[in-house]
Design goal:
The complex is a heterotrimer of chains A (about 300), B (about 350) and C (about 325).
Chain A lengths: L1 H7 L4 H19 L1 H21 L36 H37 L1 H16 L2 H12 L3 H10 L2 H16 L2 H8 L4 H37 L11 H8 L9 H28 L7
Chain B lengths: L1 H31 L4 H6 L5 H10 L6 H13 L14 H35 L4 H14 L3 H15 L24 H7 L3 H39 L1 H8 L4 H39 L4 H10 L3 H29 L6
Chain C lengths: L5 E12 L2 E13 L4 E5 L6 H8 L8 E9 L2 E2 L5 H7 L4 E4 L13 H12 L5 H15 L15 H13 L5 E5 L7 H18 L2 E6 L2 H7 L2 E6 L2 E7 H6 L4 H9 L38 H5 L5 E4 L2 E3 L2 H5 L1
Parallel strand pairs in C: 3-8, 3-9, 6-7, 7-8
Antiparallel strand pairs in C: 1-2, 1-4, 4-5, 9-10, 10-12, 11-12
The chains are: A mainly alpha (about 300), B mainly alpha (about 350), C alpha/beta (about 325).
């Protein structure tokens, strides 16, 4: 009788927590260090996204406010990261700058994938002269230094959020294309696809049910690493002055401005923006690589 | 030898379509997409008549197909046109600045390989050790450091905090760069003139920029080497070598690394693209008078033909490098048939 | 009888992996007399390859020897320092592997393979003398001199396997371990290999251990056969006895599975089931789940390896009852 009553109770929060922790540590034991690396990456990414979405929770200063404090104030006190030469609070610029860089990087990665993946699927599935021409083109672009291409693009298109995003997006299309095409081709050759074809499956069915789901897993990994790359490219473009208009807070631009004050000893102007770029890129890289190790059992050996 | 020449010839033949596609892409980016490259470069405030003049000068009022043919024809004559802003042929500043970029790029590559490969091999040998995880972490982190930030940090530490190394330029104020103009590669030129003091000065100026490029890129080579070494170490011939009683060092750094090196080498071609991008950023940070800085300068000056010329040179550079890598691979790996 | 050249005593090898510890070799004991050829047969996963590697202490990490001794000429190889072990490898004990293409360094010429081994174990040998030695042994193996500068991928499979033997024998070892030496070869080359091995054994007074799943191979080569199952030796007897009077049900099953060209058969004989997982081996005899003769005791107690007939050992409760 007592047993029935106990089983009718809702699961205690303690019980749920225990089970979650147990699953946690089991995953850790199974996958080893890779699991924890994935978590670090995930933590960074989630934190940054949070900061992007709710910047006012992290700082009360306005990033463009030139009277936020004295000019070139060293870090400490209310100005966690000091102020720049125009008196703007640097931590505020870091917080609000996340929107800029992450927004561009994410949009660029999205555009890249939305163009590259279908092209790769098509090319790999259909084959023939279309595939050959497309392949050669993509390989050529892929082998070209991405930043230089982005610079050329940005230089010719002029400043502006859209142009910069497109400039960054263009250079990653071959990455998705090559990956998806390669996977499509190898899956297409698999025996179970041939079996399905013999049974009369239509091309779309094969694409949708066999090829696409298999491709998606690796694509997610590439997407994450792609964002990391896009972050670096956007920062680079801003650093050399081809980035966004001066209005929006931008880490790359801050680095380029802060460069001038380095010889005079104001180290905080360049240290923090660079650290933010590195951390954000690292977060997405670790996330992507951690996912790759976990999703692909073969890689577990490493 | 004859076979090698024929192989070379074939690779060259294959390089041409890729180069052609690259040049076409450059054409599309520089002329087709912006619609009107001259207005794009000169901006809205340029006087209409001036813009129209320049457009005619550059042949931009012809139909696009004609422009494309002209473009290719001009390139085949090795003519990159004339600068729109300054009174010079486009090739002039390029030839002047190219050696500086090559010198920096090669030195950076050497540093990257010198750090990445040994560490990667060592990490693979000591898999799952603390050292291995540290090395992998290093590889991951370093890849996420922007080239320009690495440069700034190095400048901060070695140039400003400890005033040990110069943070700008290729030569110090006491060395006249015009004295060393034979090849444009200062390291070589100073040695040719047996000027040890100048050589030291040039070398010192190379240290921070080369380290910037090299350290940032070493991460990629570390990971590549490690991954290939892990495969290599598991292979049968390594086991067989051990079974013959060969010393461990020879097995790991001779047999295993030797085989792991080949795929790393073939990846070198792709990494070169990253290296070039990094070189541009490094040049900006260290006021290095090379192609990267030239490119940005001319973009600011709105010198469209020169900008296009520089991009074309980069495309050529990339094609040549991938051809070279293919050839070196054929020479090193006996399994490649030619 | 004189002291055996190789004596393995209660050897245990474990592989600690994420899912648990795989007990790959569980208390294996056997002896090999000088000049004898021992065949170790078993299916995939029986632990025979691991056993072979263990003799030279080449078990791949994370696998390790956890108990037992490997006595070679009286010395326990399982506990000597690594540099002593390295001296034994290639010089006193040699190993010939399964796949001759992947067992040779693709970037190294054949002559360098040999010179390297000679340089390691006989550094006092000058290059011209070393090359002479190499030429001698290659001629002995039937490989033309002009192939010395070739790369592995330029040679045929048979040639490569002969080179593997050559690399093993160049320093005149006392013991040669062959791990699946003919699995990667076609039947005709296999026949040539068998002839070669027999001749070399006579010429160099070799002691050979052949590890294989191929009963035909051991029938031709082995004086004595040890049958391995699930990490243990279940039968150890002279070759004739194994084929004609197998005592252990597993061995009997194996022999029965070999198709006989002289007998008309419509279906192939098979053995049901598969070997037990070795992470947590069940108690009792490991073959019990598949054994047609299994009784209660088999599932509770592990049968010891006993000499049921002179020179014929088997591990089975059933034999005692006969």
């Amino acid at each position: 009788m007592k047993n029935t009553r106990v089983s009718q109770l809702p699961p205690s929060p303690g019980g749920l927590l225990n089970r979650a922790l147990h699953a946690f540590s089991t995953a850790g034991k199974t996958y080893g260090a890779e699991w924890y690396i994935l978590l670090v990456g995930l933590f960074i990414v989630v934190f940054m996204i949070f900061m992007t979405a709710f910047p006012w929770l992290f700082t009360s200063f306005n990033p463009s406010d030139q009277d936020a404090g004295p000019q070139l104030a060293a870090p400490g006190g209310i100005h966690l990261m000091g102020t720049d030469n125009l008196g703007r609070d640097i931590w505020a610029r870091m917080v609000w700058g996340a929107q800029t860089i992450l927004g561009v990087a994410f949009a660029a990665a999205l555009i890249s994938s939305l163009i590259g993946i279908p092209l790769g699927l098509l090319s790999g599935f259909v084959g023939g002269p279309l595939d050959r021409v497309l392949s050669l083109t993509m390989d050529s672009v892929y082998s070209f230094p991405g930043l230089i291409l982005a610079i050329a693009f940005a230089a010719m298109m002029g400043p502006g959020v859209v142009n910069i995003t497109l400039a960054v997006a263009v250079i990653y299309i071959p990455t998705y294309y090559r990956l998806v095409r390669g996977q499509t081709i190898s899956i297409r050759e698999e025996l179970y696809v041939e079996a399905a074809q013999v049974l009369g499956a239509k091309r779309w069915t094969i694409l949708g049910r066999y090829i696409f789901p298999n491709v998606i897993a690796t694509t997610v990994v590439v997407f994450s690493v792609n964002i990391a790359d896009a972050i670096m490219t956007e920062a680079a473009l801003s650093y050399i002055g081809l980035g966004l208009p001066a209005g929006m807070p931008d880490w790359g631009m801050d680095l380029s401005m802060g460069k001038k004050f380095l010889p005079s000893g104001s180290w905080w102007l360049i240290t923090f923006p660079g650290m933010m770029i590195m951390t954000l890129a690292l977060g997405f890289t670790l996330l992507g690589e951690g996912l790759a190790e976990i999703l692909n059992p073969k890689l577990l050996e490493r | 030898m004859k076979n090698l020449m024929r192989y070379l010839g074939m690779r060259l033949l294959l390089t041409i379509p890729m180069l052609l596609i690259l040049l076409t892409v450059v054409f599309i980016v520089m002329r087709v997409i912006p619609g009107d490259p001259v207005s794009a470069m000169l901006g809205d405030h340029a006087p209409v008549k001036f813009v129209a003049e320049k457009k005619h000068e550059l042949g931009l009022d012809k139909p696009i197909w004609e422009q494309y043919i002209d473009y290719l024809a001009q390139l085949s004559r090795f003519d990159l046109g004339r600068s729109m802003i300054l009174q010079e042929a486009v090739t002039a500043p390029i030839l002047e600045k190219l050696p500086a970029t090559i010198e920096l790029t090669l030195t950076g590559l050497l540093v990257a390989l010198g750090i990445g490969i040994p560490l990667g091999a060592w990490a693979a040998k000591n898999r799952r050790s603390v050292g291995d995880f540290t090395a992998r972490l290093y590889g991951n982190i370093v890849y996420c450091i922007p080239f320009f930030w690495m440069g700034l940090i190095l400048q901060m530490i070695f140039g400003v905090a400890f005033d040990w190394l110069p943070i700008a330029g290729r030569v110090g104020s006491r060395v006249m760069s015009s004295d060393f103009d034979q090849t444009g590669f200062y390291l070589v030129d100073t040695l040719l003139k047996a000027d040890l003091k100048a050589f030291t000065d040039v070398a010192i100026h190379l240290i921070l920029p080369a380290l910037t490029l090299g350290i940032t890129l070493s991460g990629i080579f570390l990971r590549l080497t490690r991954a290939n070494m892990l495969d290599s170490l598991k292979s049968d011939f390594v086991l067989a070598a051990r079974a013959r009683g060969l010393p461990e060092g020879k097995v790991v750094y001779g047999h295993a690394l030797g085989n792991a090196f080949v795929p790393v080498l073939t990846m070198l071609g792709l990494q070169f693209a990253v290296l070039l991008s990094g070189a541009i950023l490094t040049e900006t940070t260290f006021s290095w008078p090379g192609m990267g800085r030239l490119l940005l300068e001319r973009i600011y000056l709105r010198d469209y033909p020169t900008v296009q010329g520089i991009i074309v040179i980069f495309a050529l550079f990339v094609s040549v490098i991938s051809l070279l890598v293919d050839i070196i691979h054929a020479l090193i790996d006996p399994r490649v048939k030619y | 009888m004189s002291e055996p050249l190789l004596k393995i005593e209660e050897l245990c090898i474990d592989y600690p992996i994420a899912l648990g510890t795989v007990r790959a070799v569980r208390g294996v004991s056997l002896e090999v007399q000088g000049g004898e050829t021992l065949g170790i047969v078993g299916e995939s996963g029986s632990g025979k390859s691991t056993l072979g590697l263990a003799i030279l202490r080449l078990v791949r990490a994370p696998g390790r020897i956890t108990a037992g001794r490997v006595l070679f000429e009286g010395k326990d190889l399982a506990s000597v320092p690594e540099d002593q072990m390295r001296e034994v490898r290639g010089k006193d004990i040699a190993m010939v592997f399964q796949n001759p293409l992947t067992s040779l360094n693709p970037l190294m010429r054949i002559d360098r393979h040999f010179l390297e081994v000679l340089g390691t174990h006989k550094p006092e040998l000058k290059k011209p003398e070393a090359l002479k030695l190499v030429r001698e042994i290659l001629t002995d193996l039937g490989i033309e001199e002009n192939r010395m500068g070739a790369f592995p991928h330029q040679l045929s499979g048979g040639m490569r396997q002969r080179i593997m033997i050559g690399l093993g024998l160049v320093l005149r070892p006392k013991l040669v371990i062959c791990d699946e030496p003919t699995t990667a070869l076609d039947v005709i080359v296999e026949a040539g290999f068998i002839d070669l091995l027999k001749r070399l054994q006579k010429e160099f007074a070799l002691t050979i251990v052949v590890i294989t799943h191929n009963l035909g191979l051991v029938a031709e080569l082995a004086d004595r056969i040890a049958v391995m199952y699930a990490g243990q030796i279940v039968e150890n007897a002279p070759a004739e006895a194994v084929f004609h009077q197998p005592l252990h049900p597993y061995t009997q099953g194996l022999i029965a599975c070999v198709p006989n060209i002289d007998v008309e058969q419509e279906t192939l004989t098979t053995m049901d089931g598969s070997p037990p997982g070795l992470v947590d081996p069940p108690p009792g005899c490991s073959f019990a789940p598949r054994c047609p003769l299994a009784m209660g005791r088999c599932r509770e107690q592990e049968p010891p390896l006993l000499e049921h007939r002179p020179g014929h050992w088997a591990a089975c409760w059933r034999i005692n009852n006969e």
